[in-house]
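Deviations from the work plan: none for this task. Representative record:
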Amino acid sequence: EPEVTQTPSHQVTQMGQEVILRCVPISNHLYFYWYRQILGQKVEFLVSFYNNEISEKSEIFDDQFSVERPDGSNFTLKIRSTKLEDSAMYFCASSEDGSYNEQFFGPGTRLTVL
Amino acid sequence: RKEVEQDPGPFNVPEGATVAFNCTYSNSASQSFFWYRQDCRKEPKLLMSVYSSGNEDGRFTAQLNRASQYISLLIRDSKLSDSATYLCVVNPFYNTDKLIFGTGTRLQVFP
């Protein structure tokens, strides 16, 4: 069964450093998402991406965040200057058709900012 | 009012029991509804979509009541492997594909 993959599984970084989280969505999917989950809290939407551009972003997704699809398979989330409060699990998701359609999640990257 | 509200539990039930979870959502324009399952420190996994007519998948039954803005999940014949957190998830508007998650209801099935 096709699945979303993410690397690395765990990233530890110093405050102020840049990190790039990588995702490979399911191959025939066209819509891509990033969510995050702070430990003990609910899953929160960050950004959606379609046709090589951001289609929607949340208030959390400020200028420190960016997304890119650098080639035909990868989808990345960059945090330019990490803060302590960026420590969370970051999930990538993809769906075939966008609205009304089911989103499938990758295993996540645990980001720890020291 | 929270966008998606769930009883956090935990629900502690014996194997073989039937258990029901409820969820309410605040936006009457919400379009799509889902139940996801999340194991500790793992990703949300889609359990089932929830359709207006209600739907069943094996031991799992989901119901939607648009008038009351209420979604339910029924699990029959609980197994130890059903122990997890069940997330009620809503797509809130017709022109967005973001998902809004509830905080989840924790289920613990004991022998």
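Chain B has a mean pLDDT of 94.
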